[in-house]
Structure formats: structure tokens, C-alpha cells
Amino acid sequence: MEPPHSRLHSLPGWPRATERLVLRPAAASDAEATWAYRRLPESSRWVTSAWNDLPDYRRSFTDPAHLRDRLVMESGGTVVGEAVVRLGDAWSQREVAHLAAGTEAELGWSLDPAAGGRGLATEAVSFLLRLCFADLGLRRVHARCFAANEPSWRLMERVGMRRESHLVAGALHRDGTWKDGYAYALLADQWRATQNA
Description:
Blueprint: H1 7-10, E1 16-17, E2 22-25, H2 31-38, H3 41-44, H4 54-61, H5 64-67, E3 70-75, E4 78-88, H6 97-100, E5 104-111, H7 120-135, E6 140-146, H8 150-158, E7 162-172, E8 178-187, H9 188-195
Parallel strand pairs: 5-6
Antiparallel strand pairs: 1-2, 2-3, 3-4, 4-5, 6-8, 7-8
């Protein structure tokens, strides 16, 4: 069986197009284009890392462990966002661990604020779900966000993900305060049911 982390970029058919976006595996050469918006305070407020130094950002972006999970989104030939599809194993008991290997993914995304408000993030995450369930054959996807990041959790609900937990003061923000967080998920069977409706 192919290692789960190598499956994303080895899928045939890259780049892939949605109605308004082209998605493709990220390359080291995308660092500067994504830096243009990732350095903005409105882009970094809720994401894992804030960047104020291009060389540090470039080193992180081009790390092979990060590139293997990352896709970029283009609109009209311009990079407008990125997404992460982190493939992994579901929690299981030891005796059945082989059946849980490579069956789920954690999703993440970031969009240039200049491209916001047009439904592009929803279009991209809908694509990610199809990629995970139809192309990669996963059984479950999940994502987390700060509870105060309303655009993110509303997007997850728009694409059919369900809130599985409310983590009370469960996430430490870079401002030094513990904030509530939400965890969302979707199963392949639930996603398929919405595709046939």
C-alpha cells in the first residue's frame, strides 16, 4: 500500500479546475506569491503561524514535509489561496490499526483577503471534500478553528461538515489568551448522500 502522505500529489490529473479556480500541488516557487497575503494581519489572525520575515516563511513553506500536504489555488492565473490536506491514520486499537491506516485527513485553508467575499473558499473546500472522498477514498475528514473565527466555521457548515466538539478555552492564541475552539468533521457516507440528493 502506498504511504498515505505520498498519495495526494501522486493523484493523476493535476492541475484540477473548479468553476472559478485551478488547484494544483504547491511548489517551492509559490512561497513569494503566498507570502504576499500570508504576511497580512487579517490573513494570519486565526491561522497556525503568523509571518513577518520572508526568509523564515520561505524556509517553512519549502519544507518537504509541508509541501507534500499543500495545494495552491489560482484564479485568473494568480495565486489567491492555499489548502492543506494532511492525510493520516484514524485512531484505532492495535489489532485493527492496519485497517485505520491512511483513512482520514485534516483540512486547512487560507485565502487572500482581496479574493474574499466571493465564495471562492467554499468552492475550494467543496473541491477538497470531493478529492478526499472520491479520489483518495478516505472515510473521514476533519478541521478545527477558533470559535471566534466565524467565517471558517460557517464555511464548514455550508459544505456539510458537522460540529463535533466545542473546546472550552482549548486553544492558545498567539495573543496569550486561551480561546474556545470548534472541531468539525464529515464522513464519506454523509458526503455521498449529499451528492445524490
